[in-house]
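Appendix B. Chain record.
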Amino acid sequence: MTDYHARLGNTLDIEIATAAKADWPRLPPARDMRLRIEGSELDALDFLALSGCAVQVTIGKRNSSLGKNAPPSQRLLLELEYLRLAPACIEAQRAEGEDELANTLESAWAQKREQLPALIFNATLGGEEFRKFWRPGALTPNYPAQTSSQVITALEAINAMTERWLAGDYRANNTAFELELSEIARGDGGELIRALVLQQQGLEAANTALEARRVEQPLCAFGPGDPTARVLKTVIEKFFVGGVQPWSAAIGRRKHDLLAPVTELETSLANATPDRYRDWRASRDERIAVASDAPKRHVETLKKFLEPCGGVSRVTR
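Structure tokens predicted for this chain:
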């Protein structure tokens, strides 16, 4: 983009001033991204009364000081373990005539099943790993050429887990889940938005300068033989078509590959999404859409600028 700006400026004797600071939607504070999970009767249950039940250990872990202060991902895994193990214990308690205890376990099971989408949201989209995923950070040189597919694989794996859990299959590979979240934390969601916004700002700055030049000193005012127009067409072909557009296309591909699984997860958890996240998502998607259209708008500006000279045939959308 810098080379393109310099060549445009030199050719047309114009100054192209970009915004000093990129602007993009910031995530709400972490406290506004966390859904409240109501406690259950299990919180006061004497887990020793469940001797012989596999879920006894699970309840002991969740009621311990570590369990009560567990991060959202660990809280989710404990509740999934309860959902998986509790039915057998409920059945065993009823067989032994312990209906009151069985009813307590069953009530907690139904509550946790209802809370499951919120638990998943807190552990994923509302968790620290996704905050790191969306953190802007510095733009890597040649982005997105050096990006990895590992974060996409991790997002797809989280989606597959979420689909199973919401469908009633409560099995979980705890280590795999935590590793996928760690991979997502190293992802480039924020870097992608930064690249899109910087591209937009650069092209819009060029548009502003070109439009001012067109009004004040149009090309080919005395016919299509203006030598500046011939030089400009070469600059466009070499530095925009040959430089900026390939970068734009690479960013577009990365956007599709990276955001598709994120959107899938957001859709799966749409009914368990806090208002602040929903508002941020709408702002994010609108910003990305506008930024993604910047190359198209620049092409239209170039065509309008060169229209008196017969157009520029090799500028493509």
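Further analysis of this model is presented in Appendix C.
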